[in-house]
Design a protein that fits this description.
Layout (H helix, E strand, L loop, with lengths): L5 H13 L2 H8 L3 H15 L4 E4 L2 E4 L1 H29 L3 E6 L2 H8 L3 H7 L3 E6 L14 E4 L8 E16 H5 L10 E2 L7 H7 L10 E2 L2 H9 L5 E4 H4 L5 E5 L6 E9 L6 H16 L1 H5 L10
Parallel strand pairs: 3-4, 3-5, 7-8
Antiparallel strand pairs: 1-2, 5-11, 6-9, 6-10, 6-11
Helix pairs in contact: 1-2, 1-3, 1-4, 2-3
InterPro entries: LysR-type_TF_proteobact-type, LysR_HTH_N, LysR_subst-bd, WH-like_DNA-bd_sf, WH_DNA-bd_sf
Protein name: Transcriptional regulator, LysR family
GO molecular function: DNA-binding transcription factor activity; sequence-specific DNA binding
Amino acid sequence: MRTISWDNLRFFITTARAGSLTAGANALRVSPATLSRRLANLEFELGQLLFARSPTGYSLTKEGRALLDSCVPIENGFNTLSSSLEAAADQPTGTVRVATSENIANLILLPRLASFIARYPLINIEFQTDAQPIALHGREADLAVRVSMPERGPFKVRTLGSLRHALYLSEAVGSNSKEGELGIIGWSENFKNLPIARAAMAHSYWRMPAVKVSSLKSQVAAAQAGLGYAYLPCLVGNQAPGLVLVDGPEGYLSQDIYLILHDDSVEVPRVRAVADFIVDSLREAKGMLEGLSKRGVVRK
């Protein structure tokens, strides 16, 4: 069974329609010598003379005309395939797994997801918001949005913004003037080395807490119950019902937010589409992340 190069066929079709070696080379943007070599290779592959060469140009032999007629449906099929591939690139498909925090997912990404789905109906997004970071090295996620850089690995990293923190208190406690009796709600032993826990312990309001918890949800619940001040990301504290901003975010913990992708997935259409969605969403939420859009009254 003969193996025929499609590139050689493409060069043949163009030259046959152009009528000369020079015109065909110009159309293909190659040198006449390269085109001549390609045509000779095709004739060798087929064992047939396809062109009658003369000083006035290249005219098709009987075999050449028959081959050109046979190539037309092949050319049409190839063009259809190319168009389909281009359309697929415009409408990427598949599942993209995003590892991020519950708060970024719930407060920023999910509220904006409907417009993304309307634009890319064939992409499915799986949010992984486990308390423990997902291992990107194990390919458990396609991309991640985190406040910590990967230590090593074949990753592309982009800084998306800053997550700023501030001090919050129950509005009811503040109105009862009991705030001076309270300290900052603590973090349980397993979480004491988190940047937010260390920042809370370094605050002037810190004292040995009567209550220690292990999640931001519990920090909010404890503060809402009047058990103390909560050192929270502004993204969380400003959205929590019943809490007011006491101090910050100036002078408080600020963490860079990173978008992390595998090197070999950066140009995958579905991953790139989701990455662009995340970049745009966090840009829109800059005020929420940095505490610029404050909910409640600042109490000094």
